[in-house]
User: Fold Long-chain-fatty-acid--CoA ligase from Takifugu rubripes.
Amino acid sequence: MDFVCRLGLPSLDSVSQYIRSISTPVWVGTGVVAAATTYLLTSRPTAPPPICDLNLQSIEIPGGELARKSVLQKGDAYLKCYYDDAKTMYESFLRGCRVSNDGPCLGSRKPKQSYEWLSYSQVKERAENLGSAFLHKGHSKSNRPHIGIFSQNRPEWTLGELACYTYSLVSVPLYDTLGTEAIVYIIEKASISTIMCDVGSKVELILSSLEGRKHPVRNIVLMEKPPVELITRAEQCGIDVTSMEGMEALGKAHHQEPVPPQPEDMAVICFTSGTTGNPKGARLTHENIVSNCSGVIKTTEVSCPFHSSDTHMSYLPLAHMFERVVQGVVLVHGARIGFFQGDIRSLSDDLCTLKPTVFPVVPRLLNRIHDRIFGQANSAVKRWLLGFAFRRKEAELRRGIVRRNSIWDQMIFRKVQASLGGRVRLIITGAAPISPDVLTFLRVAMGCQFYEGYGQTECTAGCTMTLAGDWTAGHVGPPLPCNAIKLVDVAEMNYLAVNGEGEVCVSGPNVFQGYLHDPEKTAEAIDAHGWLHTGDIGKWLPNGTLKIIDRKKHIFKLAQGEYIAPEKIENIYARSSAVAQIYVHGDSLQKVKAAILEDMIRLGMEGGLKTFEQPAISRRVPLHEPGTAQGFFCFLATVACLGLGPGILEST
Assistant:
């Protein structure tokens, strides 16, 4: 005891007395803090190992062309199929039938009701019935193989597609935004004699376009019961209108054995809208589509593999190959596809009902989600808390940790995740550029694997895709394992391949077979060595990923000599909450009137636009009135009064 006193330490009696003096609330609080600390230390997540060295995501191919391939590609051979028993889209569906154990395949719902599902066996039977009817009507692989599909996304769309795959026929999607003249052009160019339509108004549109002229159309299959007057009007044009139900009954009565396609057989003719002239029909084979699907599967196989328990929300247009490839990936794994009701304003309700795990999305919708989140953080405290939570989760993202069970998810991001159904584990975005800030924020907020892809119809859908674990934004990832990419000189724009910059060119089994009946346009797109020239300008980053930096054709020179890429400016200004659509036009010589919005200048500055890329306003003209662009450019904007509703995804 004397020794303890000499050390100046408190006696045991003093310690005991002090402990007894501590109140119960203090003890409870201390215990809570200790328990929380222990929980955080023991439950701290660790990042899964990346699929490859993220500092070297692509490698140069020997040969002197400066082409690069994915490090996921084994040997010199491009990936043509991921599964040996799925080398065509028909075989892919049959594989899905087997691995699903006859689970749900295609689902749809009516307002305020649950999803109703067709099983894989039901889909297979109906596809065979519909395909048999096509054959009974005179279609075959060698005679009138083209079947038009003019419809919104719905189960019957995919049934028609599968019917074509089953009997080696070729689907040709049509869509409203092409315009009436373009639809007639496609019908005649592809010699389409049978068209599937979802609603009577589209049948009427076709009839109005074809009346009084020679045309190839003989049959229209309506996915609902056709009214008598519509049937009568069609007969006057020499066209037979039949319901989908009647067509399937016809095929059931005249059933024919499937005619399986070969990988090199044509599967789809996808007409691209283009900016000038008539649409061009990209000819895609089964191998094209399967190889592209396989590239996606290979890229996600470690971090986020697909399986039969997955659910996909189909709302992006099936007339575009992005959605078709995603559906192909889902079907080959025996997973299920739920379709939205057809009204984008009800998408949020559909998502909450379906609760998908796979969600492809375009940047426009991501921008809306992002802006709504920040719009609802309408006080300084909310904005600070949102920013604090973002920084905490971003720090985890930088370490390769992706999750949605953190305290910040429970407090802040849970409602955002719930707006997509609460079960999404894979998001893939493409079809247009996305802001790096928006992408990073939503990767944090959604707490799931979030991929960005790049491509075009001519390479089926995608040719690059980001890898899991690479949290950086502003690039589109390395080449897919199904293709190689090289950059070629664009000397007039000072982009040189030796500097790692140039026009993006693609080679591989996902590259299309050319444009339908258009050898001149085909020769412009595919060179003598088989490389597809995309028209986009890319740049290789040190880690082997590709960054899209410009567009080869969509440029013009200003009066003072600088080049302008209007697409880049449009993408930034479209973020304005007051703009629904925007078109940037340039004239090197003329002064033009411009409608200027205050926050568009701000968005341009935040988006990194240079001074000469921003509209110049005369100081003599008030900002709220039409100004004069001093020989630079003008933009025409469709301005809408947009309100922030309660839902993240509600249409504006």
About this structure: The chain is about 35% helix and 20% strand.
